[in-house]
User: What shape does this take?
Amino acid sequence: MAKFCSSCGKELPENAAACPACGERVTAAPAPAQAVPVIVNIDNKNINSNVNAAPAPMGRQKNKWVAIVLCLLLGYFGGHKFYEGKIGMGILYLFTAGLFMIGVIVDLIALLGKPTYYYVP
Assistant: This one.
């Protein structure tokens, strides 16, 4: 196995103490490291604990089908918004004819995607 000078990169003779090209002293190569055994400790203990006894209330529970019927029959007047407890939006729908019926259509599509019982904050 050939040795090379760390300073100039020229090939060195096996027993050279200095590089013949640049005069740099040749340092001895470090001894290969001894293999150290790796110890893996697998201790899979779950110490997590759930302190929540019951889920926190998420708001008022509403039925999707009641809201859909109200949206179809009284969406023009904001009936479904009043049912959900959104009084401000209900009044806005009342005075703008359901946001010019575009809001009613959007709400109807949104209600169809909700679960049967949903929560209104």
